[in-house]
Amino acid sequence: MKTILVLFGGCSTEYEVSLHSAYAVLSHMDPARYTPLAVGITREGQWLCYTGDLSRLEDGTWQQAADCIPCTPLVEREAHALLLLDGSGRRLLFDAVFPVLHGKNGEDGTIQGLFELAGIPYVGCDYCSSACCMDKAITNTLADSAEICQAKWLSCVAEEYREIKDGFLKKAEDYLGYPIFVKPANAGSSVGVSKAVDRASLEKAMEVAFKEDRKVVLEEFIDGFEVECAVLGNSDAKAMSVGQIKPANEFYDYEAKYENDNSELYIPAHIPEETIEEVRRAAVRAYTVLGCSGLSRVDFFVTKKDNRVVFNEINTIPGFTPISMYPKLCEYSGIGYSELIDRLFTLAEERMYG
Q: Is the full-model pTM beyond 0.90?
């Protein structure tokens, strides 16, 4: 019997999504094989060992319960323990971590670096690939170097933008053309993403994105379908099936993903079989180039005009909620939720111990 620390919440705009993902993960862990150790991080950054009812994760009231004990992970190499800060000095031992954390401070290499220092196996990509995949400008740079087909793009940091604002906006208009998608370089679930159709909306979109991150990425509009591919594995990574998204909104923003029931998911995607295979090959290629391990969801556009496959982004800790694409794609490919969790723990130990 292995004890798995399931980490959720976090100082991130995707806090609520993490709670729903963690609820699903904890609900599908095989009780005959695993003892879960649920630890939540509040929006303010406090670590709490949670022993209450899982339903309080779903309604967001978990940290109001009396079943929360302040705690902190021990970073002593090979300690593999959680220290309770209730005056008892108790240590709770665990074997591995599933960081069910989305966005900043969870998907960007920070928490991965902590567990790496402590020698603790953890689910998902290592600290380096997590950081590279979180930063869209770095992701795009690496994709360009590997000649992976993607949209034309530009990036800038806030200080640079303030100094050369008019010149940068003119450069974006000339190089990318309207419409332009503007994104925070480091954010997930389409938080802070806007579609600009003229100079006024472009300026507004830049300010919205800068509220989320000091670096912003601008991309040309691709007239196509949004498709997603689940990839699972370490050096022997395999692509699962490909799903297609029909967003309820103009594009697949946060509200369309998690708050609007009218978004539609198709598995398999409604694209030709040869295009599905091309997406699967491209997903493994991007996964490998970016140094991913464990799991990732790789997103693409398929152009309406000629079925061209265009890389969009990669998510190293994709959503695990009941409506999330990653577990659905794995299930369609014959890997049920509980089996998927088993495989992820095995891959985590494989990467740590060889």
A: yes
Q: How far is CA 221 from CA 24, 196, 242, in A?
A: 34, 10, 22
Q: Looking up tokens 């600290």, which residue turns up?
A: 127
Q: What does the block give as tokens for 72?
A: 């902190």
**Cα–Cα dist 215/266, whole Å:** 33
CB atoms within 10 A of CB 265: 16
* Structure tokens, 78: 């090979």
Instruction: Give the pLDDT confidence of 88-101 residue by residue, as tens digits.
Output: 999 999 999 999 99
Q: Is the pLDDT of residue 253 over 60?
A: no
Q: Which residues of 187-222 are buried (b: 16+ CB within 10 A; e: fewer)?
A: bbbbbbbbbbeeeebbeebbebbbebbebbbbbbbb
pLDDT digits (tens, 9 = 90+) for 106-131: 999 999 999 999 999 999 999 999 99
Sheet strands side by side (includes 224-233): 264-266, 238-246, 224-233, 294-303, 309-315
